[in-house]
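User: For my dataset I need records formatted as: sequence, then structure tokens, nothing else. Please produce one.
Assistant:
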Amino acid sequence: MTEVIAADQLRLLIERIERLEEEKKGVADDIKDVYGEAKSTGFDVKTIRAIIRLRKMEKHHRDEAEMLIETYKAALGMS
């Protein structure tokens, strides 16, 4: 009996994962469309991606990353 329950539970978990994967694909397609819209209106998509990456960071991590970039640029004579 427990083998049947375990098999049913496994099947349900796999089906849930498959549904979520499909939803994730749909969201990824929507995001791609928004980037395409941004590009078609003249925005630089690479810069938008960088800004999104920075906005995901906590402020102190973002400040540290920006400080390191400035330090490295200065060391390379890029400032």
